[in-house]
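Chapter summary example.
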Amino acid sequence: MSMDYRIYRGDFEIADERSFLAEIRKIAGSSSAYIIFFDRNSIAGCDHIRAAVSLADRSFFECKTPISNSFEMEVLLYAFGTRQTGFASGFGIHKGANESVIVICMDNDSISGEDREKKTESFDQVFGRVISGISSLEECTGKEIHLFGEEDCRNIAGERSADKISRLAEIFSITPRELEVCGEERIEEIVIERCALLDVNR
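The structure predicted for these 202 residues follows.
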């Protein structure tokens, strides 16, 4: 399977988590897409997200040896290098204020044969429809979700305050010695190594 995806940022507040997730599932289902939310303060950068999507794609679709029952959870598990769904879910969405990275994934074969033949809808149009649906969920969030594209998402790697580096080190069990040897500027590389280790430790 060849997965196409886009990475966005979103700042919003959730009044009712269950209702919000139900609406997200409807939007994903109507567009044959996968929508994954991450806590932005727990993500090292866009390469971290890309690595998790790639590893999950291989595990879930290519090798067909998934850890979880859904592709969305598979991505979360690889993103945080864990087999514990409860632990990984803690870095998704939550009630209250959310600063998120949002990944929208789509199988390249997901557009129907008729649409491919007629070429009536491009991938960009499908992604646009999903984004429009997410942005309109004011009834669940209390206000519109403001989404930013991949260019803005590149700034995530630059948001590494001392507090965020400490948080990443705690989540991924990165020792002070590792940070000293590699340098804090390479923390995303260390995080990606932790993600890949999930295959080794299966």
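To summarize the output: The longest helix spans residues 46-62.
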